[in-house]
Sequence to fold (256 residues):
Amino acid sequence: MEPGELHVVRHGEGRPAVVLHGAGVDHREAEACFDPILEAAGLRRIYPDLPGMGRSPAADELHSSDDVLHLMIRFVLAEVGPEPFLLVGHSWGAYLAQAMAARLWEQVAGLALVCPVLPDEQDVPEHRPVVTSNGIGDHVFRGYFVVQTPEMYERYERYVAPAADLVDEEAMERMGENWGLSLAAKPYPGPTLVVAGRLDSTVGYAAAADLLHVHPRATVAVVDEAGHALPHEEPEVLGALIRQWLVRVERARVSG
Fold:
């Protein structure tokens, strides 16, 4: 599969920021959650649909997360050339982003991981909503969001649910059989942001907090009363953390 076969949405000009969404959705969720923050920062935003999701096909040769990782590295290099870029990921997209940054560390200007899937997930809590509105929404919404309000359900219906019909389930099952990344690489050494939800019943928060000891320039935040849908549920907190991360990225650029 060639990188050019991936469906991509692009906005703006300036330093590129590549944003990777999670499994089972497409670029629309990442775009809705991150674009207001990154647009205000004057960045060129790049939102690919990961293979097997959205409008990106999953070629038969993709059998693992390693295969997807290699594809996404080729995609980024074709997209931005030798230019430094920012890398942002949510959920499975964060898992891929961390591995991409470890291999392209000289070109990645900053790394942001939000509710990252990690190989050593631990202490994953049971799902527990903190705000409910009379059983609003379907079971997928209620299993994803811990803040279950009409506003959150509207976001779910607009940015999350439409992607379900576009998922190539056969391809996802094929790649999921070998979902763990096996290729070793040193931790990314640049400005890093890790954000986790304390009530994330999908991946938990403990393994994400441990990344403080992995990445030498990491800021790690665990947000109370937020789950795996943290980018929807706590946009102001996420925005403040990303803006502070961008300040650190700029300082690193200026200092050379």
About this structure: Strands lie at 8-11, 16-20, 44-48, 85-90, 108-114, 192-197, 218-223. The longest helix spans residues 235-255.
